[in-house]
Amino acid sequence: MNRYLAPHVANLPPSGIRKFFDLVATMKDVISLGVGEPDFVTPWTVRESGIFSLEQGQTMYTSNAGLLELREELSYHLDMSLGLSYDPGHEILITTGASEAVDLVMRAVLSPGDVVLVPDPSYVSYAPCATMAGASVSYVPTHAKEDFRLRVEDLAKAYTPKAKLLVLSYPNNPTGAIMNREDLLPIADFVTEHDLLVLADDIYSDLTYGGTHVSFASLPGMHDRTLFVSGFSKSYAMTGWRIGYVAGHKDLIGGMTRIHQYTMLCAPITGQIAALEALRSASEAKNEMVTAYDRRRRLMVHGFRQMGLDCFEPLGAFYVFPDISKTNLSSEEFAEELLKAENVAVVPGTAFGPSGEGHIRCSYAYSLEQLQEALKRIAHFVQSRLG
Amino acid sequence: MLTEEDHKLLKIISEDSRLTPEELSIQTGLKPKYIAKRIRDWEKEKVIVRYQPMINWDRTGEEKVTALIEVRVLPQRGYGFDKIAKRLQKFSEIKSLFLMSGGYDLSLLIEGKTMQDVALFVAEKLAPLEHIQSTATHFVLRRYKQDGVELLGEEETIQRLVVSP
Known about the structure:
The complex is a heterodimer of chains A (387) and B (165).
Chain A: H1 7-10, H2 16-24, E1 31-32, H3 44-55, H4 68-82, E2 92-95, H5 97-109, E3 115-120, H6 126-132, E4 136-141, H7 152-158, E5 163-168, H8 181-193, E6 197-201, E7 226-231, E8 244-247, H9 250-263, H10 269-281, H11 283-306, E9 319-320, H12 331-342, E10 344-345, E11 347-348, E12 360-363, H13 368-386
Parallel strand pairs in A: 1-10, 3-4, 3-5, 5-6, 6-7
Antiparallel strand pairs in A: 2-8, 7-8, 9-12, 11-12
Helix pairs in contact in A: 3-10, 4-10, 5-6, 5-9, 11-13
Chain B: H1 4-15, H2 21-28, H3 32-44, E1 65-73, H4 82-88, E2 94-99, E3 106-112, H5 115-126, E4 132-139, E5 145-146, E6 149-150
Antiparallel strand pairs in B: 1-3, 1-4, 2-3, 5-6
Helix pairs in contact in B: 2-3
């Protein structure tokens, strides 16, 4: 039946993550460092608010843009935490997870022939979403020696006159890299000079260690050029609730709302109510999770360096991205052989783009005990390769 | 006054006091020497009072009875409740002792092997003490949560995919 598939769908490559998932699924008793979601459950007060809303019979549609109360609370929260000012009436749209927000941005602003500039490596959805919107992707490589930050020189090389949208996703999945204000200012100049729009995926903005996140939208002149995407999955351990949002200029949000109303209609109400409660009462629980991630992060970096591997220190998200090239294995070979030899699952860096070669992504959203055991096994494997 | 780093360090130690300064150093980024000194200072200052595992005795099969006892006391001039409290805290059966507001004055947590042990302690040692007006004994039937740890039932299991974006 493949002949019925639209060519642009039939030609979508399978996600590198999916391929690896299929391989892992054939194994038993695997210790996994492959999961891109918190290992915490949603804070109890948040879960309880969802349960209570169901008891009250709140099971209806909400407005297309989402509960106004949630948008108002978000507007206040974004102002307080990141210095971003958005009108809750017209400049914020609640989506079914940040993933939908990414798709909406692409579909609302891209036309066939447009080009999207995507940092490499980065989250797996950007390129396929661009393709589904009829656009193509120009990858902007980032490098370990530059702490995986996006440099304007590399951006200039990847730029084509057809480029319309730049994706910025910091803290970054899979590298854990962050971009500070000094790193972002030249990017902002470049964006203005080339009249680009920016999709700023700030989903990991709460998960930073040793510094406060700077949102691209907060830079001078960038508010209206930026579509700010985020959600509740990572910060509040709410992956399954599927609540995200996009904020930006009202004309662009209006366009996205139209697509959203004909496809999703609205995000699930229970999740929206829970998200509202998260903003109001879960900041302490969130901070405790960040503190726990920070301890694990340090353990992982130390562990990989002890093995003799180069490991850039990630300052955001919950991933480490060690350099495994010393083992003379490609990242896919390393992940496969490690899985077979030691029953530990990590994700090959190439699942996130060609520049991920020579690296593996290890999530530290696991207990300290699990991480210690995984590090022990990886060290055993690396030792056998390095001799 | 605790710094933010001190607070983090104490919190980690309160969760797992077995970690060595080297292990704590890896997890906090602080120097092992600094950590060792800080811990020594806290021990001297009685900030860290004792290293003690938390044991769920209900799972050991060992017979053990816990009771909470409300005690009403006649306060003494010049001493208030402190004199009687100082005397009570010497009893090894009393594991915790608090001065309370509300319907009674002192709250005692008592441990014994049997209910009779506890009842005898109350009847023979506690109730006859001078200045004690009345006692009300409440036996603990089941522990659901203690010192922030949920003790009952299955742990919340998270069934995550093995690999995800």
